[in-house]
Please model this.
Amino acid sequence: AGKAFFIATTPATLDRKEVIKLIKPLLENPAITKSGQNLKYDMLVLKKYGIELAPISFDTMLASYVLNPDEHHNLDDMALRYLGRKTTKYDELTGTGKQRRHIFEVEKEALTNYACQDADVAFQLEEVLQAQLQAEPQLLALCTTMEFPLVRVLATMEYAGICIDTEHLARVAETTELELQSLTEKIYAAAGSSFNIDSPKQLSHVLFTDLGLPTGKSTKTGFSTDVGVLEELAATYPIASDLLSYRTLQKLKGTYIEALPKIINPRTGRIHTSFNQHITATGRLSSSNPNLQNIPVRTALGKEIRRAFIPSTPEHWLLSADYSQIELRIAAELSGDERLIAAFRNGEDIHTATAQVIFGTEEISGDMRRKAKEVNFGVLYGIQPFGLAKRLNIPQKEAKVIIETYKAKYPQLFNVLRHIIEEGKEKGYVTTLLGRRRYIADLNSRNGTVQKAAERAAMNTPIQGTAADIIKCAMNLCYQQMQAAGMASEMLLQVHDELLFETTDSEKEALTKLVENAMKEAAVLCGMKQVPVEVDCGVGKNWLEAH
Model:
């Protein structure tokens, strides 16, 4: 297959329209495969000029990421690591700080050399990385069937963006400010004086010197007032609880309520998040500018922020599709534990079923189910009696009994978690059901604390990493099937185990069926052979209604 590379040109050199006319047939030719570094960026730039870069055969950034997610995947670092070659960096080309020049001000020869260097390095890296992947069939398959096809899907989603109801956010901002003022007054009243709540030094002095609250860990400027410290104090001291609420409101206000309207693209009238395919160690996508992964789902304010995400026209709808308890289902699949698998196959509420097993009774109270839920999620990632006692606000002795009972009732689950750790120590890495790897060297650390943290990461990766594989596979399937059906509907967002679409009156029923089936098919393709998955779908005039 042919390779296509192109060089940036300054406006003074060639007419832009003429260049586009010349390169468009080449970059869109289905018979000529395209490879490069971080091709999603190139696709987005070219889309602005009416060019659809296709087909993608290889992305060096993603190949490096699949081979070892914990390495650096920028071109300069990879050139040094794989080719032993020191490259000219962008900052060297343009300068930094007050001396920085616009890219169009860089000398033509230097700019040409820089562009040729990047193309040449990407070409050489492809040969090196392709050879490494050929020796690892599972990793090669992950690249060719999942990561490389996902580049087009993500580029399409980022380019589409999503609409925001700015009037709703303005109203939320007003009510949030009133709540912050009320909390501020309560905190001042409890402290007996006014001070800068946002200053850790002043807050530390008020809490631990003026009020004499029990101190926790210390810092260079005094005793810590971080979330962990405040959470411990909150059970006994109302001021700590108010401070936690204050911080949460401040963060959401600054990160979303006030920030989202400011980053609406003036050309499209939408916000365009960036989906990062090469950041997390487990394989999960992350998002940035803005980060939409951290909007709380269950809090009242988080719900109001979700209400602000709307379709592009009043006639359209948003469709949300969310995997139900996917990580617990993956744990059941990995373990082969008959009790867990039977509960999912019978469509039981897994937290109630677990509570019945732990407490030995059919009559389960809300408090019992809450405890079982914490155990279900916590034990999978190595939670200890101290941590569970803290989460449930119960004595450590009771927490220890609950964990021991859980282990006795689900022995296969804990056998497989132990096996994952032992295999990781032997091989140096752990894998998902599809074979995605994460290298964890600290599993053999002589430092007990470091080793325990590594063991938790080892237990987490096969579960969270398989969930990542499943949602990525689902995105590819949904995109392909929507394209094949000629749908006008668009996939807009991916957040954790949820996909968000914009659809029309005439397509919403068909899209719901297509998405649900594709998400279930993706789970099977990613190794879910024994445990069925459930997909919750909803349609509404905003993200909150749909979810």
About this structure: The first strand starts at residue 34 and ends at 36. The longest helix spans residues 448-484.
